[in-house]
Write a structure and sequence with these properties.
This protein has helices at about 5-30, 30-55, 70, 95-110, 155-165; strands at about 65, 80-85, 90, 115-120, 125-130, 170-175, 180-190. It is an alpha+beta fold.
Length: about 200
């Protein structure tokens, strides 16, 4: 395993490990009704960690059919709001969570409020991550590997795009300096996964 691959792996382990910390805090003060959901999210984060450690290719895909809201619900944390339409989608949940978690982390690094929206499209699904940060300077390629801002490794946005493209999708950004940025991850529909 190369040094670059180890740095990428360490970068990607931060999100599910942080999610486990947030879930533990919620479980400590949440109601009994919230406990089942919290345990399910913790199990998903644990599986993501296991997958990251056992799969040497960070862009390999294991598509499955799942609910779109379940896919992004583990990303809720202080400063993040999720508004996702219920829909069945087919994708690799670990990889898409990685991509969206990187977009959320980027939004929180540059702003204080992040909104994640998700919806089924005729030909797939889209997840948008909007922040209230300073926006992006025109002409800057934020998806370039190693492109780094303050407190950034330069891997997150590059890997989010690589994961989206591995699914046959696109990751775009719309921004006007001073008004934040919106990253939209669009993934085409795949045939249903058989049992």
């Amino acid at each position: 395993m190369t040094g670059d691959h180890l740095r990428l792996l360490a970068h990607e382990l931060r999100s599910p490990v942080a999610a486990l910390g947030v879930l533990a805090s919620v479980a400590a003060v949440g109601s009994a009704a919230d406990l089942a959901r919290t345990v399910a999210l913790a199990v998903a984060a644990g599986r993501d960690i296991e997958r990251l450690l056992s799969d040497p290719d960070l862009l390999s895909l294991r598509p499955e059919e799942l609910e779109l809201d379940a896919l992004v619900s583990s990303l809720v944390q202080p400063g993040v709001t999720c508004v996702v339409q219920p829909a069945r989608v087919v994708c690799d949940p670990t990889r898409i969570r990685q991509a969206v978690a990187n977009l959320v982390a980027n939004g929180l690094r540059h702003g204080s409020v992040v909104t994640v929206t998700g919806a089924r499209l005729d030909d797939g699904f889209a997840i948008a991550v909007a922040d209230d940060g300073p926006g992006i300077d025109p002409g800057r390629d934020v998806f370039e590997r190693g492109a780094s801002g303050v407190g950034s490794t330069g891997y997150g946005l590059w890997l989010a795009r690589a994961i989206t493209e591995a699914h046959g999708g696109t990751l775009t950004v719309e921004s006007t300096p001073g008004t934040g940025a919106t990253f939209t991850l669009s993934v085409p529909q795949r045939p249903s996964v058989s049992d």
